[in-house]
């Protein structure tokens, strides 16, 4: 680990000021489960760390409101995952949390930090001797032509094919979640779908957040599709693994006819991936097994396989189909 | 003489373990302790051209940086299989040569572990790189047949009985298939860690090991010391699994640094460095041919295998030593080759040969059962034997058929329908039931034991043996408690301590069969000694006798060895060298056996494989510690599941080394993966091997698990997957694995 200085912020404003003052080498510290991990690997080398764990207004959450669910940026994954109203009214959001990481990690990890977790690409995490445009812009991408079993099938570029690994953001994107952020120029909001960027030629620029902004809240509009929802996650083992393919699905049904479907894919794309064409196709259709499978095919229509990840195209199709079936069972 | 089944006593160190009172090497934390961190090579083969350690030296808290330029006079400890002590002949940092990525190039020692790690990251090297190769499909000059090689031919020559090729050609029903097993890493939870310190010219090393004797003598050779000036303490290893079975590459670095700095130095090798700094399960490829008559009598088996070794050592395989003996197949030919690759030398990860060989051979047996349209259990029962096919000698004991019968009963095998994909749940989930067997040599080594009874009630046993979590202390306590008729909790057991007894490698499932007979013999000797003090003594707490005789203590020493071993083996024991006999003994051959039954469920759409239950029945001779034995079998089932469905160390041909070198990306089973595991023991003693009738357990319990699961996957889906691990990659890649 490289030496760094450390301060604690008591308020969001203090955190923003400290970020601005310390410049681009500064990082906020929430649960530390991503940040410390990458610091120990030498991938993150902040010069200054600002601990926000004492910022009261960032913690806590409220799922009782009629119009929206509100989560503080610092609320812990395990607390939110266990919330009864979420478990019953929005199982996709709860499952996306408790199917992530391990209980110990979820006890530490915050929702804000969760959204900003970084890719598991081994060439990114491994450091030297691997070339990685995300870690070292312009150095190349060793995943292309390398071990790309876990890499993105959707959204990749010639510069980077890293998968966005998180689960919760996928569920948020399916449910049109938004984040509130605070920066030196005040507060603003943006859809979670606009938080993560396509890699393009600048894979090191991962989000549309500015370096001196703090995620204060995550908001999800209340919807009937919450109840008939699931976060279906297929991985290399039954727990404590990132998705090979996942699907967040929410349905509003009229009997067995789909009024509105929400589908987002995880584990297969460079960012949380909303599958709008598949949603459109399902609108007004009976949700048969056939229709569910067709939705999966449409969702993965643009998939570009590499050397070792082609099986995940078929897997993702079937994961979407299973997710639709599970969600429909909850309608 | 006490006999009969042993009671299921609690693990003697369970209480210490859950309280954190069991002390491992890296738990040693003292003032003045310094901390080491390794800088490692970024290239896979070549020479260091320049090594810049100035920034590291100047970093805060740094006391010392060692490179190959600071190691004058240090020797290689020699390769375990070449008369030496180390897992490989190559000792890093004695020259600028780089043999594998991740090889240590510098040791930084600092006041704190953070300072050391930071400084290690500042070490900069440039290299002259050389081409390397990692594949089993190597150029001819990189392939060495074991037969006719410089390796001891008594062990490594081809295994031949009868005329396998002739009998195969003539057979009515044949199977010919090739199976692949990937490199895997054992990842004991306890990282490789060493605390080295010098006291009055004596080097004292704490390190979790299965072979403290080799660490001791390896260090003595490396540093030119009298072995009497090196002591190694390894009271527990936090898992070892064969990776800690010999002298490691990092240990001498800590010893040299401690000498330079005149302070204790702790060196913990990080998880990812451990993927490169110590041995692993090499990749192997197996071609198995079986020829049978239509009634299922197997006339011929041919098992040819290639296994990865390093460029600097010939690490041989013993696949066919097991497969030749699994059934009564009269015509057998086994042929093994080593393929040189540019890696650290691989080693003996749990069931090192038996697990991959078992996967291959027992998958082929299942293929044969389907070719014959014969129940896979019935096929195995039809090929039982009481004679060792390779030597013609009798088997000292063999209850494999009984393992199969009891296992089938417990599992409900009779309800299985033979056709693949014929057992389906209402929701479309496919059910698969598979069976496979395993065998493992039953071997033993010499052992020295010292048993001491004190007037204050304590009893202390010091014996050759290591506690890696398998429960050797509990087994020893049980045996001795029965012999002396005392409470096992009154016995203090010292293992893995070169100060207390000469230490032999504890591996190959011979630990219990070597240490417990020594403990038992020591107990008998102690009874005699107590009788000389009190002729009426007939067991029970020795303290009474000692107090009456006015003695503070009485001590006895014994040395035991395997049947047929010459007395010269005791010199090898004293010299820290392996001296193992088995499975062949002068008058018989000894093997342990297991039968495994596994159920898988395959989801209809995603084809996700889940394992609800495994039944294992083992013939390991007398079970001297039922509780820890059961836990060995459970662990073996779980690891077999991991190996069959999860674990692979990924290599990148452009870089060498291993890419998924951490516990997030190297996928071992977690609790949610663990099935219901039903364990049965035959528990029949094998008195020809030793007086207690103990054979081996730790490895046979894992042998065949992967095949049982692969066979179950075939039964569920019709897909015959011949490459481990079996993952969605293959299950969904229809063209590569169409239903058969
Ligand atoms: C072994 C392992 C397995 C895992 N498995 C999964 C999994 O299966 N699925 C999954 O989704 N995740 C998984 N994770 C990731 C885990 O969920 C994240 O590490 C965690 O959510 C990050 O939260 P944190 O509070 O610890 O963030 P930190 O590590 O504290 O911060 C992460 C980043 O976010 C920034 N940050 C934190 N809070 C804010 C804020 N409020 N505003 C602006 N920036 C902020 C930090 O500066 C830092 O750059 C796994 C992690 C590990 C280590
Ligand atoms: S995929 Fe992206 S993160 Fe991975 S090596 Fe390429 S550039 Fe780096």
What report would you give on this structure?
The complex is a heterodimer of chains A (331) and B (740). With 331 residues, chain A is an alpha+beta fold. Chain A is built from twelve helices and twelve strands. Chain A has helices at residues 12-22, 35-40, 77-81, 84-89, 91-98, 103-108, 111-115, 122-126, 168-174, 276-282, 289-299, 311-329; strands at 5-8, 26-29, 48-51, 61-62, 68-72, 178-183, 186-191, 214-221, 229-235, 243-254, 257-266, 273-274. In chain A, the strands form three sheets. In chain A, strands 4-5-8-6-7 form a five-stranded antiparallel β-sheet, covered by helices on one side. In chain A, strands 9-10-11-12 form a four-stranded antiparallel β-sheet. A three-stranded parallel β-sheet of chain A has the order 1-3-2, covered by helices on one side. In chain A, a hairpin with a 2-residue loop joins strand 10 and strand 11. The longest helix of chain A has 19 residues, at 311-329. Chain A is globular and about 60 Å long. The mean pLDDT of chain A is 97. Chain B has 740 residues and is an alpha+beta fold. Chain B has three domains: 25-131 and 189-240 and 244-277, Aldehyde Oxidoreductase, domain 3 (Alpha-Beta Complex); 142-183 and 281-442 and 587-731, 2-Layer Sandwich (Aldehyde Oxidoreductase, domain 4); 443-574, Aldehyde Oxidoreductase, domain 4 (2-Layer Sandwich), CATH 3.30.365. Chain B is 26% helix and 23% strand. In chain B, the strands form five sheets. Chain B has a seven-stranded mixed β-sheet. In chain B, strand 10 and strand 11 (202-207) form a beta hairpin. In chain B, helix 9 packs parallel to helix 10 and helix 17 packs across helix 18. Chains A and B meet through helix 8 and helix 12 of A and helix 3 and helix 19 of B. Bound molecules: flavin-adenine dinucleotide and iron/sulfur cluster (SF4). Flavin-adenine dinucleotide is lined by residues 27-35, 37, 73, 77, 100-101, 105, 108-110, 112-114, 116-117, 166-168, 214-215, 242 of chain A. Flavin-adenine dinucleotide binds at residues 27-35, 37, 73, 77, 100-101, 105, 108-110, 112-114, 116-117, 166-168, 214-215, 242 of chain A.
């Amino acid at each position: 680990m490289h030496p760094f200085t450390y301060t604690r912020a008591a308020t969001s404003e203090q955190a923003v000021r400290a970020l601005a003052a310390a410049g681009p080498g500064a990082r906020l510290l929430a649960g530390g489960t991503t940040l410390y991990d990458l610091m120990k690997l030498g991938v993150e080398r902040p010069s200054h760390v600002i601990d926000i764990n004492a910022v009261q207004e960032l913690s806590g959450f409220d799922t009782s409101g009629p119009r929206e669910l509100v989560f503080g940026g610092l609320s812990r994954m395990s607390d939110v995952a266990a919330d009864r109203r979420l478990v019953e009214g929005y199982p996709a959001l709860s499952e996306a949390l408790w199917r992530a990481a391990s209980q110990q990690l979820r006890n530490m990890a915050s929702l804000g930090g969760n959204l900003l977790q970084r890719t598991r690409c081994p060439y990114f995490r491994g450091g030297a001797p691997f070339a990685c445009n995300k870690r070292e812009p312009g150095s190349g991408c060793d995943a292309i032509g390398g071990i790309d079993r876990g890499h993105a099938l959707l959204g990749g570029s010639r510069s980077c094919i890293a998968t966005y690994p998180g689960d919760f953001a996928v569920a948020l994107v399916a449910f049109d979640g938004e984040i509130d952020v605070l920066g030196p120029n005040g507060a603003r909001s943006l859809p979670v779908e606009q938080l993560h960027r396509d890699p393009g030629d600048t894979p090191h620029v991962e989000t549309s957040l500015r370096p001196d902004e703090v995620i204060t809240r995550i908001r999800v509009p209340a919807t009937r599709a919450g109840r008939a929802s699931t976060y279906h996650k297929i991985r290399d083992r039954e727990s404590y693994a990132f998705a090979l393919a996942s699907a967040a699905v929410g349905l509003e049904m009229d009997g067995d006819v789909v009024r509105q479907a929400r589908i987002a894919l995880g584990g297969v794309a460079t960012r949380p991936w909303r599958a709008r064409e598949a949603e459109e196709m399902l609108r007004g259709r009976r949700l048969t097994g056939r229709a569910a499978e067709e939705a999966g095919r449409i969702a993965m229509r643009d998939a570009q396989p590499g050397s070792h990840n082609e099986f995940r195209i078929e897997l993702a199709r079937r994961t979407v189909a299973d997710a639709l079936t599970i969600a429909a069972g909850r309608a | 003489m006490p006999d009969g089944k042993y009671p299921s006593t609690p693990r003697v160190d369970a209480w210490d373990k859950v309280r954190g009172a069991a002390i491992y090497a890296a738990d040693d934390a003292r003032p003045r302790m310094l901390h080491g961190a390794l800088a490692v090579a970024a290239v896979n083969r070549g020479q260091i051209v320049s090594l810049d350690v100035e920034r590291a030296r100047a970093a805060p808290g740094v006391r010392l940086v060692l490179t190959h330029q600071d190691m004058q006079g240090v020797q290689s400890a020699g390769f375990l299989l070449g008369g030496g002590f180390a897992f490989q002949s190559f000792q890093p940092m004695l020259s600028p040569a780089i043999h594998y990525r991740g090889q240590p190039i510098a040791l930084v020692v600092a006041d704190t572990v953070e300072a050391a790690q930071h400084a290690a990251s500042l070490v900069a090297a440039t290299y002259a790189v050389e081409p390397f190769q990692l594949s089993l499909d190597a150029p001819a000059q990189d392939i060495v047949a074991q037969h006719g090689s410089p390796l001891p031919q008594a062990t490594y020559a081809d295994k031949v009985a009868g005329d396998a090729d002739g009998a195969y050609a003539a057979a009515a029903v044949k199977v010919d298939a090739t199976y692949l097993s990937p490199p895997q890493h054992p990842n004991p939870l306890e990282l490789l860690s060493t605390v080295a310190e010098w006291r009055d010219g004596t080097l004292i090393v704490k390190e979790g090991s299965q072979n403290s004797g080799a660490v001791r003598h390896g260090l003595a050779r490396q540093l030119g010391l009298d072995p009497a000036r090196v002591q190694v303490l390894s009271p527990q290893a936090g898992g070892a699994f064969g990776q800690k079975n010999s002298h490691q590459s990092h240990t001498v670095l800590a010893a040299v640094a401690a000498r330079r700095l005149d302070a204790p130095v702790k060196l913990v090798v990080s998880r990812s460095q451990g993927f490169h700094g110590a041995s692993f399960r090499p990749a192997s490829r197996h071609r198995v041919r079986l020829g049978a008559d239509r009634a299922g009598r197997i006339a011929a088996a041919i098992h040819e295998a290639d296994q990865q070794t390093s460029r600097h050592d010939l690490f041989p395989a013993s696949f066919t030593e097991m497969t030749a003996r699994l059934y009564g197949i009269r015509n057998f030919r086994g042929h093994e080759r080593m393929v040189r690759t540019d890696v650290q030398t691989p080693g003996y990860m749990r069931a090192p040969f038996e697990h991959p060989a078992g996967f291959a051979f027992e998958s082929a047996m299942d293929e044969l059962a389907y070719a014959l349209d014969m129940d896979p259990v019935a096929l195995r029962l039809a090929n039982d034997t009481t004679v060792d096919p390779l030597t013609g000698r009798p088997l000292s004991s063999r209850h494999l058929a009984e393992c199969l019968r009891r296992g089938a009963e417990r599992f409900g095998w009779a309800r299985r329908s033979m056709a693949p994909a014929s057992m389906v749940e209402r929701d479309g989930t496919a059910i698969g039931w598979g069976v496979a067997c395993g065998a493992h040599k039953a071997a033993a080594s010499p052992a020295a034991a010292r048993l001491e009874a004190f007037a204050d009630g304590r009893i202390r046993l010091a014996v050759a043996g290591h506690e890696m979590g398998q429960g050797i202390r509990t087994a020893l306590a049980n045996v001795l408690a029965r012999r002396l008729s005392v409470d096992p909790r009154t016995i203090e057991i010292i293992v893995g301590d070169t100060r207390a007894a000469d230490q032999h490698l504890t591996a190959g499932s011979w630990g219990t069969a070597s240490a417990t007979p020594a403990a038992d013999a020591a107990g008998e000797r102690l009874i005699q000694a107590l009788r000389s003090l009190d002729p009426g003594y007939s067991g029970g707490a020795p303290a009474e006798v000692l107090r009456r005789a006015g003695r503070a203590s009485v001590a006895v020493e014994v040395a035991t060895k395997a049947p047929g071993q010459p007395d010269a083996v005791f010199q090898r024991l004293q010299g820290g060298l392996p001296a193992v006999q088995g499975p062949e003994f002068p008058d018989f051959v000894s093997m342990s056996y297991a039968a495994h039954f596994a159920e898988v469920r395959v989801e209809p759409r995603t084809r996700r494989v889940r394992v609800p239950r495994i039944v294992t029945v083992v013939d390991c001779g007398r079970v001297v510690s039922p509780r820890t034995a059961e836990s060995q079998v459970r662990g073996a089932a779980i690891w077999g599941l991991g190996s069959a469905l999860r674990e692979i160390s990924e290599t990148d041909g452009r870089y060498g080394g291993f890419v998924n070198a951490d516990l997030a990306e190297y996928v071992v089973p977690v609790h949610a993966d663990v099935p219901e595991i039903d364990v049965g023991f035959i528990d029949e003693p094998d008195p020809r091997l030793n007086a207690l009738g103990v054979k081996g357990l730790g490895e046979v319990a894992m042998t065949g698990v992967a095949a049982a699961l692969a066979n179950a996957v075939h039964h569920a889906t019709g897909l015959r997957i011949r490459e481990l691990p079996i993952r969605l990659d293959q299950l969904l890649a229809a063209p590569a694995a169409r239903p058969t």
